[in-house]
Amino acid sequence: MINRIAFLGCGSMGEAILAGLLAGPLEPAAVVATVRRAERAEELALRHGVTAIANSEEAEANSFAVAGADVVVLGVKPAQIAPLCREIAGALGPETVVLSVAGAVTLEQIERELPAGQPVVRTMPNTPLMVGRGVVALSLGSSVSEAQAKLAHQVFAESGVVLQVPEEQLAAIGAISGSGPAYAFYLAEAMATAARDFGLDEQTARILANETVAGAGLMLAQDGADATALRKAVTSPKGTTEQAIAVFDAQGLPGIVLAGAQAAARRSEVITAELQNPSA
């Protein structure tokens, strides 16, 4: 059970995780968040009833936030993870779970900056967490116990589906589920453009595309849903949809999606290497 949790950096993703936690049994009094600006701290405090501190006004905000915490969520940009870990290392309890949502920063990179044996969990969340339909992949560091792994799962349990995977799979998962919402949004953009090319007005085109993609997503979210079966149910033999799918196949759409995902995964690996060797 989480009795105290600290969010170090609380942007849109961090706030989505926070809101999910507060939708469950966690009370606002159990949360401390640190952010850069006083305006953002006030916004979080008013919206969620949590304690929020601006680093610009309190130099020791991060150390104060992590003291006594069961879980610490690192929500800053990848390049800021190592300096932040060094800053809070002395204030962490030995059993505190340090949970990173920063893409491309490895467990080894984080563990290197923290006390020996500190439990570290690396995560790959996606933006549908904001509407309670996220997918989160967790990879556990070498010092994480079964009980501490359960705490990490609890952080995301109210916001979506939680999967535990080996760290070497995170780049691929990021390319599919991490970047994937952008692929769906891109499809909606393309559908809206096609609708306008048919002569439909801007508003009608946008509604048709957005609601169709959103509705299809809800169908996929049903228990036991299978994308292939759902597609075939809409694709009547010699019908209009079959013709559209045939063109997509002829144009190589599956290969295009694969190539895009591979490019995303390669970029993740490059960022990881750059963080390991910042002077290279």
UniProtKB/TrEMBL annotation:
<dbReference type="Pfam" id="PF14748">
    <property type="entry name" value="P5CR_dimer"/>
</dbReference>
<dbReference type="InterPro" id="IPR029036">
    <property type="entry name" value="P5CR_dimer"/>
</dbReference>
<comment type="pathway">
    <text>Amino-acid biosynthesis; L-proline biosynthesis; L-proline from L-glutamate 5-semialdehyde: step 1/1.</text>
</comment>
<keyword id="KW-0641">Proline biosynthesis</keyword>
<dbReference type="GO" id="GO:0004735">
    <property type="term" value="F:pyrroline-5-carboxylate reductase activity"/>
</dbReference>
<keyword id="KW-0963">Cytoplasm</keyword>
<dbReference type="InterPro" id="IPR008927">
    <property type="entry name" value="6-PGluconate_DH-like_C_sf"/>
</dbReference>
<comment type="similarity">
    <text>Belongs to the pyrroline-5-carboxylate reductase family.</text>
</comment>
<protein>
    <recommendedName>
        <fullName>Pyrroline-5-carboxylate reductase</fullName>
        <ecNumber>1.5.1.2</ecNumber>
    </recommendedName>
</protein>
<dbReference type="GO" id="GO:0005737">
    <property type="term" value="C:cytoplasm"/>
</dbReference>
<keyword id="KW-0028">Amino-acid biosynthesis</keyword>
<dbReference type="Pfam" id="PF03807">
    <property type="entry name" value="F420_oxidored"/>
</dbReference>
<comment type="function">
    <text>Catalyzes the reduction of 1-pyrroline-5-carboxylate (PCA) to L-proline.</text>
</comment>
<dbReference type="InterPro" id="IPR053790">
    <property type="entry name" value="P5CR-like_CS"/>
</dbReference>
<dbReference type="InterPro" id="IPR000304">
    <property type="entry name" value="Pyrroline-COOH_reductase"/>
</dbReference>
<keyword id="KW-0560">Oxidoreductase</keyword>
<dbReference type="GO" id="GO:0055129">
    <property type="term" value="P:L-proline biosynthetic process"/>
</dbReference>
<keyword id="KW-0521">NADP</keyword>
<dbReference type="InterPro" id="IPR036291">
    <property type="entry name" value="NAD(P)-bd_dom_sf"/>
</dbReference>
<feature type="binding site">
    <location>
        <begin position="8"/>
        <end position="13"/>
    </location>
    <ligand>
        <name>NADP(+)</name>
    </ligand>
</feature>
<feature type="domain" description="Pyrroline-5-carboxylate reductase catalytic N-terminal">
    <location>
        <begin position="4"/>
        <end position="101"/>
    </location>
</feature>
<feature type="domain" description="Pyrroline-5-carboxylate reductase dimerisation">
    <location>
        <begin position="167"/>
        <end position="269"/>
    </location>
</feature>
<feature type="binding site">
    <location>
        <position position="62"/>
    </location>
    <ligand>
        <name>NADPH</name>
    </ligand>
</feature>
<dbReference type="InterPro" id="IPR028939">
    <property type="entry name" value="P5C_Rdtase_cat_N"/>
</dbReference>
